[in-house]
Request: fold
Amino acid sequence: MTAATLAGLTGAALVGLGVYGLLVLAHPLRKLLCFNLLGSGVFLMFGILARKGGAAGFAADPVPQALVITGIVVAFSATALAVALLLRLFETSGTVTLNPDEQRPE
Amino acid sequence: MTDFLLAAAGLILLTVAVGLARILRGPENVDRTMAAQLLGTGGIATLLLVAAATGVRGAEDVALGLALLAAFASVAFVNSAAPRQDDDP
Amino acid sequence: MSAADVFTVVAVSAGAFFFLAGSVGLLRFPDSLTRLHALTKADNLGLGLVVLGLLPQASGLLGGLKLLGVWVLVQLSSATAAQVIAQALGRRRPPP
Amino acid sequence: MTVIEILDIGLAVLVLGVAAWTIAARELFAAAVGYVAYGLLLSLVWVRLFALDVALTEAAIGSGVTGVLLITAAMRLRGTDPPQASEQLRPMVRVAAATLCIAIAGVLAAGVLMMADPGPTLAPDVARHLGETGLGNPVTAVLMAFRAFDTMLEKVVLILAVIGVWSLAADDAWGSVAGPRPLAHHQGPLTFFAQLLPPVGIVVAVHIAWVGANEPGGAFQGGALLAAMAMIVLMARVVQAPAVDRRWLRVVLVAGPAMFLLIGMIGFAVAAGFLAYPDGIAKPLILFIEAFMVLSIAAVLPLLVIGPPNRPQAGPP
Reply:
């Protein structure tokens, strides 16, 4: 098995793990972490596309690599915005849930 | 020589991975931060060894980038754990 | 095997040993400060010896300088990290 | 089985193990530290895929900057981590979710295993036109020339994110300063570190941005490392971040995409169209745009990490 196939399988498993965490975990920050796991799994699957598309003297196809670089930066900006929203919610309400039954009386 | 470098890389990765059990066990956040710090250094060593063995171009620059960021997690932890008497909530 | 290769094997093996020692220390030592001691050994000597061992294999002068740069930067980072972690520990638990 | 295969398998197991740990961890902080470790291991995987540009981006942004963001957030949200009773899922739901996810991962894995080898590729097209850009690094050529429109809009996304974060400021803090306050007197190892590392870091960052034309590296990676240096200085509380209503700060923020757009427009007049570069001077133009992009990225990333301005505006001095 080549390093590329192995990385692709790792990516597939990471997507599964990320979706599981998104569904099951309650805390929004944990959900964000899982969103990032899911994203990096997708990026790894791009990685196997790149490696298997290596041709014309390049070890890996540069186009999927460029897509992944763009993707990492965009995923970061989305995460940063979500963290800012979450911290602001915590500041104003003292809790991190939007469920009205769970808002702690303070 | 190639196989030796790769084996050394694998061994270092394995040992720092065992050290990662400190992230699992804690007991305190300081211990977890230390495990991340060890993984950072071990990761750099692994990267250098793998790069030397596989002859991939430009790996020294990746290692330099990682080395610049080596204290990042620890500093972030200490900074946010510091007493905030003069800070806003 | 040339002399340079023997040097690489010896130095890299010694580096791997220090990483092993650091990990074992991090796991087995009883409290945070002693674990910190184990961590810094791995950071300094482990990576230092690996870099030293890889120098004969480096691609040219610039490659070698970059390797040394990596080690110097990690020295600086790990020394700082150890200091601030120890400070954070000391702040929380004042000596009796 | 060769040594490299064992190493690859070990690395994959480790990546998956740490990922599973960040999901299973009881405490928020442990999960955040686990994510930092995960990002670092992932950049090793990218090195094994011969994608050094991605490895550098993942190390700097995926692990480093995101790690600081998550660790800081986890520390601020201490005490919120035990899930409330009604949000605990029943075991049946968990099993159903797990089954669904195993199915998703299985389908994706089957896709990976059935993928043609060699797969579909645009590499020959890139190789054919690489000469026209004058660049030696194909990834930079794709980012800055062949898919320049994407890269430009991605810079705009970063600025939109900054606007989004700033707009979360409380009314009385609008236009003021974000992030930790500087210390009154500087001493100790962290201050020393924050004074010693950035000069070295700036040299390395500029080096990586500059060699990006021909070797792995480029504007993203160099900019992210510069941003990391700015964050070290902020976290060591040596200086405070500039107030968000400073004009120069806003100019720096938009410099990258603005210069990209401007030169793209000039392409209408002197080359084949929007974002086309005239023959012969493509490389200097690309490096010129990249210089501004490095500055913008270096400003955007720390601003996103330190969050909205959080101190009431001080009166006029």
Summary: The domain at 3-98 of chain A is CATH 1.10.287.3510 (Helix Hairpins). Residues 32 and 82 of chain A are 8 Å apart (CA to CA). Chain A has one domain: 3-98.
